[in-house]
Design brief:
Layout: H1 2-7, E1 12-17, E2 20-25, H2 34-41, E3 47-50, E4 54-62, E5 70-76, H3 83-135, H4 145-162, E6 165-173, H5 176-183, H6 185-201, E7 216-221, E8 224-232, H7 235-248, E9 253-255, E10 258-260, E11 264-271, H8 277-293, E12 299-301, H9 304-325, E13 329-338, E14 344-355, E15 359-361, H10 367-373, H11 376-397, E16 405-409, H12 412-415, H13 420-431, E17 438-443, H14 444-449, H15 454-463, E18 467-473, H16 480-485, E19 490-493, H17 495-499, H18 507-521, E20 524-527, H19 533-541, E21 546-547, H20 558-570
Parallel strand pairs: 11-12, 14-16, 16-17, 17-18, 18-19, 19-20, 20-21
Antiparallel strand pairs: 1-2, 1-5, 3-4, 4-5, 6-8, 6-11, 7-8, 9-10, 13-14, 13-21, 14-15
Helix pairs in contact: 5-6, 11-13
Length: 590
């Protein structure tokens, strides 16, 4: 502006863009007559007042067009503009326009460069955040399983190079589910954060009081944590960490103002050069499981005896998986008899394993392993599917009289699967099975373990039309008010009560009270474990609806049960079921 004003001996000059003054000279700050300058730029005025000079003649030249901007020059009335002045002003305007364009181009490039840098920085930050989330637990901020296994692989490589030992500690909280169920998941989450901090405090310390940088605490999943310590000289250094964990957990945790006493079971495994990460984790997990079996709130060091037991267990689990794939299981049926007329009212379907080498195995030989390994879900589905297929066959052939039910046991792991109702409905529809003929047996302990939503689940199962049976009643901890809320159809009295009928005691009074209570709740009662004629007669006198047990019939193959069904349709009576000829071959009265 100064250069333009000096070149034309002007009193003032201004650069306008629209109605805004971008730059000026000859006007005092905050006193630029923007409105008058705009009028001159638009050709509606030709004179302007300049401070210290007075009224001046003004000349305006557009830079390229009026929208781009204009250059306005004001000079004393004593020195009017001539043609040469106008020509010079237009030249200045062109130079100024080129300068402005260059400056705008530079500014645009700078803005684009800054925007690109911001985008790169934002993208890098987003990638780093995604990478962090992919490798860390969202709740505790600890490394997750993926990062742990990577660090363990690297630690084992360094151990092979340095000739040192790698220690892995598998830590599982004792009875954590109880805290979630009773105090709520928000308390459980807060507790897991506090546990994470306490485990970190249990890591090794350097001589200057800092944590050993190569040690790691990771959340493996749920209430399971894994500690990694490398560069160890002996297993004793790993067990020392386990001892510190036990010491830390002896103090209460404070959550929401309350003190929670929580213990943990730990398994310790050490890997020598050449060890595999997955094997080391597996060994530590096995040692932790052994610690829980020995009473919880302790740690165990994995040794050769555990290795042998683990290998046997892995072999048995492999055989069990193969058996499911090869359909090596069979259903046996134990009759349930009406105590009013002696007819068969149903049967409990019980699984057997037809092992290729060991022969027919009872449930006790493989069900615990199925529950531990999670195969119980597949096994339970197999039982339900095959029971429904058999029911459909009996219905189509007319072997089963109307109202004869077949019940199957449902495990806690099956109830944890949200798709159970949908899967069961699909099996019933696929086989054309009348759902009212299928009974689902659940124990009190199973319902307590799934106490968050048992009523909703049972209502879903009952909505399919299935009969709901509370098995082993009297051995759990259900209150009467809780029992009253459950949508049940049948109570099965536990065999421990029935066994007591053979000798004087209170079992008769207890059973009578339970039968009366069931009647008030509108439930029928089945007594399990009937093994003598005296027990059977007593249950009948007490008004029990039905019974099952070795005295009435042992679990038997489908052909034998079909034979009993045909007898039961005619005139089967309680007094006739104790005769030896009706027992399967090789079985004897209890």
């Amino acid at each position: 502006m100064e250069h333009a004003a000096e070149s034309l001996d002007a009193a003032a000059a201004a650069l306008l863009s629209g109605d805004r003054c971008l730059a000026s000279t000859g006007f005092a700050a905050k006193q630029v007559p923007t409105g008058e300058l705009a009028a001159i730029a638009h050709g509606t005025a030709h004179r302007i007042e300049v401070p210290g000079v007075g009224e001046c003649e003004a000349l305006a030249v557009p830079l390229s067009d009026p929208e781009t901007g204009s250059l306005v020059i004001a000079r004393s009335l004593d020195e009017p503009f001539d043609t040469d002045d106008a020509s010079m002003l237009r030249g200045m305007a062109r130079v100024l326009m080129l300068t402005i364009r260059q400056l705008r181009l530079i500014e645009s490039e700078r803005a684009l460069r800054e925007q690109s840098q911001r985008e790169v920085a934002e993208r890098r930050a987003a990638e780093e955040e995604l990478a962090h989330h992919a490798l860390h637990d969202a709740l505790t901020g600890l490394p997750n399983r993926t990062l742990l296994l990577d660090r363990l692989d690297q630690a084992l490589i360094r151990a092979s190079e340095q000739g040192t030992i790698v220690g892995v500690l598998f830590v599982d909280l004792d009875n954590f589910k109880l805290i979630n169920d009773t105090l709520g998941h928000h308390v459980g989450d807060d507790l897991l954060r506090l546990v994470s901090a306490r485990l970190h405090e249990s890591l090794r310390m350097t001589v200057d009081g800092a944590r050993v940088g190569t040690d790691t605490v990771a959340r493996f999943g749920g209430d399971e944590f894994v500690l990694l310590a490398e560069g160890l000289g002996s297993p004793a250094e790993a067990t020392a960490i386990a001892e510190r964990i036990a010491s830390r957990f002896s103090e209460p945790f404070r959550v929401d103002g309350d003190q929670l006493f929580v213990t943990a079971s730990s398994g310790v495994a050490v890997g020598n050069p050449g060890a595999r990460a997955d094997a080391l984790i597996r060994d530590a997990d096995a040692a932790m499981y052994h610690a829980k079996q020995r009473g919880r709130a302790r740690f165990e060091l994995f040794d050769d005896r555990m290795r042998e037991r683990l290998m046997r267990r892995l072999g048995a689990e492999k055989d069990l998986r193969r058996a499911i794939e090869n359909d090596e299981f069979r259903l046996f049926y134990q009759p349930i008899v009406s105590l009013s007329d002696g007819t068969i009212t149903g049967a409990e379907a019980l699984i057997r394993w037809l092992h290729p080498d060991r022969g027919l195995l009872p449930p006790g030989d493989f069900i615990p392993l199925a529950e531990e390994s999670g195969l119980i879900v597949d096994l339970g589905d197999w039982v339900i599917r095959n029971a429904c297929q058999q029911i459909a066959i009996w219905q189509d052939s007319g072997v089963a009289q109307r109202g004869v039910t077949v019940s199957v046991n449902v495990s806690a792991r099956q109830l944890e699967d949200a798709s159970l109702v949908h899967r069961l409905g699909a099996v019933l529809e696929e086989n054309g099975t009348d759902p009212g003929v299928l009974g689902l047996e659940l124990t009190e302990s199973v319902l307590i373990e799934n106490s968050e939503s048992p009523i909703k689940l049972l209502e879903g199962l009952r909505g399919l039309g299935a009969t709901l049976i509370l098995d082993d009643f009297g051995t759990g901890y259900s209150s009467l008010s809780y029992l009253r809320r459950l949508p049940l159809d049948v109570l099965k009295l536990d065999r421990s009560f029935v066994g007591g009928l053979s000798s004087p005691g209170r079992d008769r009074d207890i059973i009578q009270s339970l039968i009366q209570m069931a009647g008030v709740l509108g439930l029928s009662v089945v007594a399990e474990g009937v093994e003598t004629a005296a027990q059977l007669a007593c249950l009948k006198d007490l008004g029990c609806d039905a019974a099952q047990g070795f005295h009435l019939g042992r679990p038997m193959p489908v052909d034998d049960f079909e034979h009993l069904l045909s007898i039961g349709r005619a005139s089967w009576r309680v007094r006739s079921v104790v005769t030896p000829e009706l027992r399967p071959a090789g079985e004897h009265a209890a």
